Amino acid sequence: MKRLLMVAFHFPPMGGASGSHRSVGFARHLPEFGWQPVVLTAHPMAYPSLDMDSPLPPCPIHRAYALDSSRHLAIRGRYFRFTALPDRWSSWRLAAIPLGMALIQRYRPQAIWSTYPLATSHCIAHTLSRWSGLPWVADFRDPMCSPRYPADPFMRNYLSRLEEACITRCQKVVTATPEMVQVQQERLPHLPDHHWQVVENGWDAWPGAGEIRPTPFTLERPLELLHSGTLYSGEGERSPLSLLQCFALLLQQGKIRCLQQAGGGIPLRLTFRACGQEGWLRQQVDGLGLKDLVVIAPPVSRQQALEEMARADGLILLQGEGFNPQVPAKVYEYIQTGRPILPFVHPHGATARLLAAVGIEHLFSLKTDEKLLERIELFLYDIIHNRVWVPSSLAIQPYSRRQRTACLANLLHRLIEDPQQ
């Protein structure tokens, strides 16, 4: 069996990071396709939060010490910028590179794979590849930068140059969507087509999948809508503000109500789980008079989050035009639960393409839909009467993590046979 050195900062027991699911999924399934992974990751002390319930794949896992500049190197809450280039965990390189070389000597891998988010992962892999002569696959789950991110011009320019250097120096670039390949090819047209490979994210089976379902709807319990994961504050394309305003209008019109209220509207509860913007969101909820309708819930373990999705009557998805090349990792978790999805996405983005591929064609827009209130109300009634189309197990099968890992394994086989192709 061939061996692969995987450099991944996001790895259990790191909590609240969807990036770890991709690394763990690949590590779990690769042996089935002839590759034994050896994981180089960070010591848990580097992680902002921990999820000790996250299962580990059955492979060698080695941890190098890393410091978080914002916590371990700060003086009165401030730290030097050079300690956080390209990110706050840049110190990870000091221990990870010698450990990585020792792992190469010990396990004799045929290739190196590293993944973003965390630019330091690619920096480590580049050095290990250069010193060992092993081919390097750079995985970009997300881009390092965009025309508007980061907001700081210095960091945006710094990460843009670093991203270009990583893409140019590795043997293969893996992205999570075809749209992201197109963006990068337009930026770097001199690179050949075979330099790029798409390996999408996917869903993983979990204990209880397919068995947990919401209880039948009655007027004695609220209809449960859930948004699980990070939100952005303000009025951007992944902000819930416009959506909250819609629900405030429906509440004023008597179309929906909280369970304690009398009236003929649909009893409703809207939960935002682990949104990352709790203070801002609470201000908006209170200002719109939705305090009794909205629940702002803290993070939970991934297993608990998946079970909550499966019990929900409907799942809310927010993905605006500015994120068209990307697909949020939670979309794959959403479609696996078999629950109705209320998708606010741009019709020409990668997320809309994925939803259409599994049979979800009714999309919503928070910007241009003049009949939005009517459509949301109709969606709620359709949930009650079981008229909402949900993805079938056959439709979502191509998007399993196992199928995606097969694509990665095929890429690795081709790479070691001919690194130039």
Describe this structure in words.
By secondary structure, this protein is an alpha/beta fold. It contains 14 helices and 13 strands. It folds into two domains: 219 residues, 3-Layer(aba) Sandwich (Rossmann fold), CATH 3.40.50; 174 residues, Rossmann fold. The protein has a seven-stranded parallel sheet with strand order 3-2-1-4-5-6-7, with helices on both faces. Strands 8, 9, 10, 11, 12 and 13 form a six-stranded parallel sheet that branches. Helix 6 links the parallel strand 6 and strand 7. It is globular, with a radius of gyration of 22 Å. The mean pLDDT is 91.
Per DSSP E runs of 2 or more residues, the count of β-strands stands at 13
CATH topology of the largest domain: Rossmann fold
Strand order of the largest sheet: 3-2-1-4-5-6-7
Shape: globular
User: What is the CATH architecture term of the largest domain?
Assistant: 3-Layer(aba) Sandwich
Q: What composes the largest sheet? A: 7 strands, parallel
Low-confidence stretches: none
- End-to-end separation in angstroms reads 22 Å
Q: What structural class is derived from the secondary structure elements?
A: alpha/beta
Alpha-carbon Rg, integer:
22 Å
What's the number of domains? 2
CATH superfamily of the largest domain: Glycogen Phosphorylase B
CATH class category name of the largest domain: Alpha Beta
Helix percentage: 25-40%
What is the overall number of helices? Answer: 14
Q: Estimate the mean pLDDT confidence.
A: 91
Approximately how much beta-strand content do the residues carry?
A: 15-25%
Describe the structure concisely.
This protein is an alpha/beta fold and 421 residues long. The protein is built from 14 helices and 13 strands. It has helices at residues 19-29, 69-72, 92-107, 119-132, 153-169, 178-187, 241-252, 278-287, 302-311, 329-337, 350-357, 372-384, 393-396, 401-417, and strands at 2-7, 35-42, 61-64, 111-116, 136-140, 172-175, 196-198, 223-228, 256-257, 266-273, 294-297, 314-319, 341-345.
